[in-house]
Design brief:
Length: about 675
């Protein structure tokens, strides 16, 4: 009873390895991309018109361009450079360095909100996916429903992204400690590896592969029709050009004006087809800014900057939100292995609990500074609060090489709140597209946001009491919460004056230590600036598709959903035979055949495996469901043959079979 045949085990392991390898991503290389051209080359191209001009090659813009180019002629204009060949973008260990780069060709542009929170916006092909922490998780079903999206189309679009650039992370000790601490603290159940937004604790996806190499939204351009797609880098669009000469008709877009990398002024135009459009995907800062500079916005603000009014809309730049993040810093006796977000606790109190850890410094690094979410930033507390501007940060970066490495050893457990409900606004500083607008987020203005933050910090306190992090700490016994809060006040840097009761009042701690997790959104809300199809209200031939249209941040991280928007939104324009290639049909058929084999083989061995798992005390994996019954919360299939579920299931069984074989008597 309970004995496992050696041959059976090897067959199981071989089969599981096969089905896991069959789920591998496309072998992407930069040779698969369309040419990435400098903007100055546009003047040497024969004048031609485009069906679509997309402003912003970011999280939404890249999948938009790839999808629309299947049928239409598309011009993609990106103000930044290429993410390829830059180690600080591509390699996980250099994540924080990227955000600190203040060089002219930096992939990020720093700004400070009027709230006193240091922030950054992407300036590179791939947008936020080229500079973020890489965590991938879908929106919750209620978000999809509230947005009025087609659930079937949504559930077809997510897998298109996942099969190209999303991976499962290798869990580090710090992330495992968070997982176990969350479960012991009551953030349950454990949902395993999942892209879905589920209450409890789970491991999400990542756009970093097994080697720690980043895969960005720019990779998705490889799926476009290269004959129809032109990509220009260092192309800063300064305004949208409208035809306003026709009386009694809406202003209509006819093209864009942009500057190339040399400062030369260029123009690109749409075809005369009435369905041709300009799509702005410049992000929550760039999209409302460009609308304002193009003459769409509050009349008073436009007149202030001598901008001709094309359309008065008082809502442009309004409803700006940024999900506040508060983190607890835990110093460690040894530098923990670096990890970005892998594990997340989705609580029922409106707080998401995540973690990051580790110190990293490469000889090739441009700087030693590793960004907001690292222990070393705490040394900035030596700078008086009123002097903690971007220039002071830069000076600090260049002076800190002689600090002892031990100063930087530690990790964070962080809390991000859902929503948020607090909102602010965006206004122009000047008419230069390269200038940062003035942005206010009004963190914790709404009392519910503050209560969610307190709930998150109290959840972290319960996690620390479980002692799963004691092996990391200097004394091996953990720290009192008041001590941890005091250290965290120093480690979280912003320009907000501190109070003496930061370590005794969690409400004050939340207000004083708030930083960003770069999930800001709003400024072009649906129903106020754009309609349900993301067409700018009051003009023709102009849409906005990106995070600026969102009322709240989707799920635990918005990048999955914003990329999905870029894939799903234009697909309604394409005939059905354009969106489903014969190659795709063949792949579904092949995978369905594999699926049928999986069910039959696993069923044959499941009883023996489960018996062994019970004896060695390992939790059993769920029964493999019938393929057609495996559905998402939105009612549609997660993907055609349950690839995501099978990857998690097979990974679980491989480990379980190894443990059983090691602990069980065997027979030939």
């Amino acid at each position: 009873m309970g004995l496992i045949n050696r041959g059976v085990f090897f067959k199981i392991l071989a089969f599981l390895c096969f089905i896991r390898s069959s789920q591998g991503r496309n072998h992407f290389t930069t040779l698969d991309l369309p040419p990435l051209l400098k903007a100055s080359s546009f003047s040497r191209i024969q004048h031609e018109a485009y069906d679509y001009i997309i402003v912003g090659g970011g999280t939404a813009g890249c999948p938009l361009a790839a999808t629309l180019s299947q049928k239409y002629k598309v011009l993609l204009l990106e103000r930044g450079g290429s993410p390829y060949g830059n180690r600080n973008i591509s390699h996980l260990e250099n994540f924080h360095i990227c955000l600190a780069d203040d060089s002219p060709n930096s992939p990020s542009q720093g700004f400070i909100s009027t709230d006193g929170v240091i922030n950054a916006r992407a300036k590179v092909l791939g947008g936020g996916t080229s500079v973020n922490a890489g965590f991938y998780s879908r929106a919750d079903p209620s978000f999809v429903q509230d947005a009025g999206w087609d659930a079937e189309l949504v559930n077809q679009s997510y897998p298109w992204i996942e099969e190209r650039i999303v991976y499962w992370p290798n869990i580090t000790p710090w992330q495992a400690a968070l997982r176990d601490g969350l479960l012991e603290a009551g953030v349950s159940p454990y949902n395993g590896y999942s892209y879905d937004h589920l209450f409890g604790t789970k491991v999400g996806g990542t756009i970093f592969d097994e080697a720690g190499y980043r895969h960005t939204a720019a990779d998705l351009l490889a799926a476009g029709n290269h004959n129809n797609l032109r990509v220009l880098l260092h192309a800063s669009v300064t305004r949208i050009i409208f035809n306003t000469e026709q009386e009694h008709r809406k202003p209509r877009t006819i093209g864009v004006e942009f500057k190339d990398e040399n400062g030369g002024q260029q123009h690109a135009f749409l075809t005369r087809n009435r369905d041709s459009e300009i799509i702005i995907s410049a992000g929550a800062i760039g999209s409302p800014q460009l609308l304002l500079l193009s003459g769409i916005g509050p009349r008073k603000e436009l007149k202030k900057h001598n901008i001709s009014v094309v359309l008065r809309n008082e809502h442009v730049g309004k409803g700006m939100s940024d999900n506040p993040m508060n983190s607890i810093f835990i110093p460690t006796k040894d530098a923990p292995k670096q990890s970005l977000i892998q594990t997340v606790g989705i609580t029922d109190g409106g707080a998401f609990i995540e973690a990051s850890s580790g110190f990293s410094q490469s000889p090739d690094s441009i700087q030693c500074h590793h960004g907001i979410m690292s222990a070393e930033i705490g040394q900035l507390s030596t700078i008086p609060p009123k002097q903690r501007n971007l220039d002071a940060v830069k000076k600090y970066v260049h002076k800190k090489y002689n600090l002892p490495k031990e100063v930087f050893s530690g990790g964070f457990i962080l809390s991000k709140i859902d929503g948020p409900l607090s909102t602010g606004n965006l206004v122009l500083v000047d008419t230069d597209i390269n200038s940062n607008p003035t942005v206010t987020f009004n963190y914790f203005q709404h009392p519910k946001d503050l209560s969610r933050c307190v709930y998150g910090i109290k959840t972290i306190e319960r996690i620390l009491k479980t002692n799963h992090f004691t092996n990391f700490t200097l004394n091996g016994g953990g720290y009192p919460m008041e001590v941890v809060l005091n250290m965290s006040v120093t480690a979280n840097i912003n320009l907000i004056p501190k109070h003496t009761n930061d370590s005794t009042s969690m409400e004050q701690f939340c207000r004083d230590t708030v930083v960003t997790i770069w999930h800001y959104h709003g400024g072009c809300h649906v129903g106020k600036v754009v309609d349900q199809q993301y067409r700018v209200i009051g003009v023709s031939g102009l849409r906005v598709i990106d995070g600026s249209t969102l009322f709240r941040s989707p799920g635990t991280n918005p990048q999955a959903t914003v990329m999905m928007m870029g894939r799903a939104c234009p697909r309604e324009k394409l005939p059905q035979n354009e969106t489903r290639s014969s190659q795709g049909h063949q792949k579904q058929h092949d995978l369905a055949t594999i699926e049928d084999g999986r069910v039959k083989i696993i069923a044959a061995y499941s009883a023996a495996i489960r018996s062994c798992l019970l004896r060695v005390g390992t939790p059993s994996p769920p029964n493999p469901p019938a393929v057609q019954q495996r559905r998402s919360h939105g009612g549609g299939m997660i993907d055609p043959v349950g690839e995501v579920w099978w990857e998690h299931y097979s990974k679980h069984l491989v480990g379980a079979a190894h443990r059983c074989y090691a602990k069980s008597p065997t027979r030939d």
